[in-house]
Amino acid sequence: MVQELKKFCSIGIILGLIFMPLTICLSYNLQDYLWTYDTKGYIRSVVLSRDGQFVVVGGSKGIFLFNRSLSTPLWSYNSGAEVWQVSLSHDNQYIAAASDDHHIYLFNKNSSIPLWTYEAGDQVHSVAISGDGQYIIAGSIDHKVYFFSRPNSTPLWTYTMGTIIGSVTISIDGQYIAASCVSNELHFFNRTSSTPLWSYYFPYIGIYDLALSDDGYYLAAGSRNSTYYFTRNNSTPLWTYETGYRLISVAISSDGQYLIAGSWDNSMYYFNRTNSTPSWSFQTGGKIDSVAISANGQFIVAGSDDGNVYFFNRSSATSLWVYTAGNFIRGVATSENGHYIVAGCMDNKIYVFEKDLSTNGGNGLSIAGWDAIFTLTGVILIGILSYYKLKRIKN
Q: What's the rounded Cα separation, in Å, for the pair 190 and 202?
């Protein structure tokens, strides 16, 4: 009996020594993200290509282009002014940027030298590019919307609104365009004319974000206290949903079937287009400034002022995972299939994730780390109990 306990005790101690370094490795070296990069300045906008291959970032230090597999930028461009928004064509070839230096920039992804620039009358805060990179729409503080064809930096047309342009969006083929100003105007265009197909005037000031389905048929708008859903054929909304707080960010699936809205009531709302009542909602610990949805509407990501990135399957309001970056999240994006996610944080860093990475919050032990801790604890306890049991028998 004594010999068996000695053997049992020895095995427990040996296993403890074996598992100790493994546990430390699992607990502290397991990354919850693929990589992170410090841009040395705050981030305004992040874009992830549909195939998840490229990441574009805009912020106070300019524009950064990454290959998703590398944490070192392929290139960067700093005009000396803050870049408010970036947009990437679906073929991954062209990047448009809106800057505080009054300029609109167009790049080919293979070079940090702009193909062309255009100087607006004031700061430019919004920009969007068509799927093939053929058309660009931009909005400025000078109250104007500028529409371009890629080969030429001279606008095809401009349109003047009553105040600062808040948001612009464009269909994949560049045929349909929507633009809003921060007062109460929303205008819907066919690219062939600067005369709107229709206009809608909201009953209050504050239109913050627009999202258009791939074919340009469905349009979502986030306003001072409500979400609006339109079709391109009618200026009367299909429906509205009131939260009572600002809807700063909206995102729509490629077919317009699913909609996600982020609100300053700290909540995000998930809708099926057939119903103005949310299918579900989720409350975070802070204002939600950015939301994104995969092209098929299956996966959803949200960034909150509570410093967390939240990732969901549309079937449930329970998050698949949460990552704690520790500072306000200013931009999020997802690939077409939801497999890759990118987030831009006010700590100046971008974070790139895979959807299946397990996380308990980033700045602590991972799930695998906790499993290893429990395993080690059990092994050590076996060794200790065996030792004292052996000691009692000897006495």
A: 21
